[in-house]
């Protein structure tokens, strides 16, 4: 006869296999996960596709590290698939480079083996950077998830503490917190709750402790705060229990502040290095390229400059910035979820890109005019020549200078070299900047305004909650207290909210809960604020236990929000110096320096062109000509990189730097905040490119005129 234990074991295993307790999630959780989580589908799709074709075995140490990152980022791929994607990306670009080099060698320039070798070298470097980028994608996705989730840590502790103050029940507190958080942390808290429901853990404490282990290295203050909350369950004294709960919130606030204080000190030197190595040195190096290209005998071509300064160096800056951001502690930043904004459809709309392209395309065509004039079909259609002297278009001052100045030597065309062509090239970075700036401005304008209005409303609401709590504390029923607060807030934004609640109660005959949360006429429908919504839900919940409980809950929320605001202001002060320095460098010093460099490149080309003209005019007529001939032969204009391409490279580089540093500064200040990033990007692109275009235009004109005046006596 089987024993009782054998029977229990048999049927417990059978039951587990039928309901798959430890395997699949519950239907509710699966549905929630599908609706809420944001997954980089393209990366997952490619990784799974390539991972199914080729299986790569990786070391156990690397597998464990990558698996941890994938789990943190909630990516549904295996470490092997992630590594396979990286290796195939590396090999794909490498073989594409080899095939392109062979094609160029056989079809275009079989006599230029040195250029082919340099092209392959640059391609190998690009492939290595792509490998690094794809290999570290799980790490960066995990970091982005942590930043977004950790921004909700303080609100999570706040909601849990507030609920535990009037109802000492951990299960209901966790459920309440998960319902009122909006981002990734809400998903994690629901998972904690569902793990108990499906039987993976027997108690909410076991499930919560298991989850908190994932934050052990990243946010120990978060764990300590929850342990304090758990310990309050064992306190018999009400005053002692309240004191422990208040201590829990203070612990996480102090922990976040201390970590950000340390971080603000540590990143000063790396951010300075990024500015010097990523902006100053490359820009100064570009100033020397026109002369260096002539000295090196055409070894450096314009496309080399484009690859180095618009691909390789931005990758280096991106890597350095990424290393700084990976060390950013969590617990501080913007916690609002962009996808939940009622105007999110405007941010996702594609028509902004179409409108921006309509504006930017004419500017791009203006920048490409020097090359359009070289197409015979274009000139024949308009019945014009491919180039003109300034004298032919009525400008006698530079009568011997061509508009575009393409040079044909030995059947090979190079250029354009004229100052006017350099000025036209300014429209290339301008068109790109206008495209992104106008698109992002249209995408974010209404959303950022809505966010600012909401923040202003929430600031006033904190004080209004204090008044409402006092009325409730005096024994005034909640339904009547709203009318008193509405009367006392007539000159404030919150007046509309309280008066609408009062109107629904008095005239609509609604209950307090319906007056606030009714789907059609509820006041919260017209005031989409997570703070107001959560505060009112706490009010409704606590009012069921008495007016004094409701009053204490609202007072606690008001006090804690004020404390959080103070901490946030202190943290902004810590980062303000670094952020303001980098922003001024990005939107002022870098464009200013780059514009002057463009003017110097145009001046150098103009001087060498002038020397060539003098040599042709007075060849053999003067002994003093020997020096001019020497300079003309030593610095051959047709072998140098045209300033047209130098300017284009600098302009594009400034745009790339603005993209990289804007994302970095927003992440430093606010954590992962896509809305603010795009909004600031629009503003910074407008400021930096406007200054760059103006400075470059003035520099080109002033230095070119100065060079012609200084050399004028030689032609006299």
What descriptors fit this protein?
mainly alpha; two-stranded antiparallel ribbon; 30 helices; 76% helix
Brief account:
By secondary structure, the chain is mainly α.
Molecular structure report:
The chain is mainly alpha-helical and 716 residues long. Helices cover 76% and strands 1% of the residues. It contains 30 helices and two strands. Helix 4 runs parallel beside helix 7 and helix 8 packs antiparallel against helix 13. The model is unreliable at 11-26, 35-39 and 620-625 (pLDDT under 50).
Note the main sheet: 2 strands, antiparallel
Q: CA-to-CA gap between the ends?
A: 122 Å
- Stretches where pLDDT is under 50 for at least 5 consecutive residues are 11-26, 35-39, 620-625
Order the strands across the largest sheet as they lie in space.
1-2
Give the SSE map.
Blueprint: H1 4-19, H2 27-36, H3 41-53, H4 60-73, H5 79-108, H6 113-135, H7 137-150, H8 153-166, H9 170-180, H10 184-197, H11 204-212, H12 220-231, H13 238-266, H14 268-295, H15 302-326, H16 344-348, H17 351-367, H18 369-372, H19 376-382, E1 407-409, E2 412-414, H20 419-425, H21 427-473, H22 478-488, H23 494-506, H24 512-517, H25 530-543, H26 547-617, H27 625-634, H28 643-670, H29 674-710, H30 712-715
Antiparallel strand pairs: 1-2
Helix pairs in contact: 2-10, 3-5, 4-7, 5-6, 6-15, 8-9, 8-12, 8-13, 8-26, 9-10, 10-11, 12-13, 13-26, 14-15, 14-26, 14-28, 15-28, 17-21, 20-28, 21-22, 21-26, 21-28, 21-29, 22-23, 25-26, 26-27, 26-28, 26-29, 28-29
